[in-house]
Every structure is written in structure tokens, then in C-alpha cells.
Amino acid sequence: MRLVFVTATTGLIMLVVIFELLRRRQLREKYGALWLVVAAAVLPLAFVPTLLDGFTSVLGIASGLSLFLFLSVVFLFLVSVHLSWESSRLEEETRSLSEEIALLRADVAELQESRERVTTP
Amino acid sequence: MATDERLLTILPAWNEAESIDAVIKEIHQEFPGTDILVVDDCSRDATAAVARSAGAKVVRLPYNLGVGGARRLGYRYAVEHGYDIAVQMDADGQHDPRYIRDMVAALADADLVIGARFAGEGEYRVRGPRQWAMKLLSMALSAIAGTRLTDTTSGFRACRGELIAFYSTNFPVEYLGDTVDTIVQAKRSGYVIKQIPVSMRPRQGGTPSASPAKAMVYLFRSGLALLLALVRR
Question: Do A98 and B65 touch (CB under 8 A)?
Fold first, then answer.
């Protein structure tokens, strides 16, 4: 019973945190939605940890929780790969932006110089 | 050298205020009236101001992008301003601008010319793992390029026409990628690579970017850079 208390509280806290972050517009919707779905899927399991046992015995896995742990590792792995990909892309985007800024500033400086030359002969 | 072709010398610089003035003046002495672009990679010292007063064009990056990033911006500038030939040099005075003439002449039958330090001229020596790494890279890249390349990590290069445009968007910005990957990419896209011997001089200022302690890491990273360069699309 104590176990259920621990897992259920963790699940609820997770849900509240995500919801709060979304509410304050700190998370992009696509990420928020992802984590809300995860929380919603996990929450029943947090209240009834034995929920998956019937299903896993069919698959030949001893306990529902070990299937759950396995799936969460796979899921977290995919999420972190996605984030690395996303940050590589962002890095490339900011890089192009900074190139653009450097070129623009050089152009502006040149224009200013030529204008000064015209106004003060 | 042909006079109607516009030449841009690209000097990526990071905290090179001590040496950049002399480097720019020397290039201007060798080639009066040539355009020099200093890409200031967000230096903390007066590099940009010194370069501007020495008569170079300056673009300043808003934050540090590394030498590969600075070079890519240089090529982009060359494309946007319609240059025919781009020469990339180091801003620390190690590269002798007298060789620019030879390199540009060699561009007549090549798209990319590399100024190589080990090709006979000069006294440049390295030892230990760093030397192995350089050997490994030269062997592999010579095989890929179909010509003998003895100094693949040299930052003294000249290229022309289409290859400038190619580099302005494709120049690899990661460490070592900017030297290794560029050769593989150029070759793959059907460009002709050539090397000519140059001698190196001691640095006029600044500090070397790699210490001997990092040599093993360098070996590992060059292997990785090579591997990635080969499998990349």
C-alpha cells in the first residue's frame, strides 16, 4: 500500500508540473502534449502497479513493472536523441543568423562611411 | 597572376590584435590594392579595430563560432560580394603571403590549392601522436583525393569560382571537420585538389590553439572526423 502511495504521488506531481509549465507558456505545446500523454498513461499504473501483470504474463515477462521499466528506458532514449537532434538544428539556425548579422553590420558600416564621405567632402 | 580576377584573402581571427596588423600590412605590401577580410570571431581584444585601421574589411560575429564557422562566413562574404578567388590564411603570421601568388597560379588547373608545410620547404616539425594523426590523415585523404597531400590540416588554402559558393553553405564548422571534411567534400563534388609547398614561420602573436597534451585527443578526433567525412551524405 505504501508503494502505491509513493508512485501515485509521483505521477500526480508530474502531471501538475507539466500542466503548470504549459499554463505559464514555458513549454512549447508539442512537448507539453507529449508529457501530458505520458503522465496520463502512467497515472493509472501508479495507482494500481499490478495493472500490467495480466498482459505481461502473456508476453512471458515476469512482472508488469519490468516491462514498464524497459519501455520507459526505450522511451527516454528516444526522447534524448530527439532533443540532441533538435539542438543541433537550432545551433545551425543560430549560426546562420549570426552570420547574417555579421554581414549586415558590415554592410551598414560601409553605407554609413560612404554617407559620411558624401556629407563631409 | 590574372589581374581581372577579384581576389579576397580571408583571415579568421580570434584575439589576434597583436599580430593582425603586421599580417594585413604584409599582404598589402605583396599585393597592393587586394581585398582582405578579417572575420573577427568575437574577440575580447581589439582585433576588429586594429584590422579596420590597418585597411582590412571586417565582419564581426556576435558570438564565438570557432575557426570553421569564421571561415564559412568568410566564404559567404566572398560569394555575396562576387569574388573570383578566395584565399584563406591564419591571422597569426604563420603563413607567408608571398606564397599567395604561387597558389593563385596553381589554381589555373585546380579548384582547391593547399599550401602544405611538409612538402619540402621550411622547417616545420611535429612529433608523437599528433604526427601520427597527421600522417594518418594525409594517407587517407591522399587516397581519396587521388593526389599526394602531405599536409591536410593546413589552413593556408586558395579556391575559386564554384567552390567558394559550395563552401559558403557547406563549410564544416566543427573542429578538424573544417580541414578534413572540406577536402573530402570538394573531391566528392568533383573538384580538383592540388598542393604546393610552403614554409611556415613562427607565430607573431597569440597562443597556439592545441597543446601537446591534447595530441591523443587530436588523434582520436581526426579519426572520427575522417570517418564521418566518408560516410556523410
Answer: yes
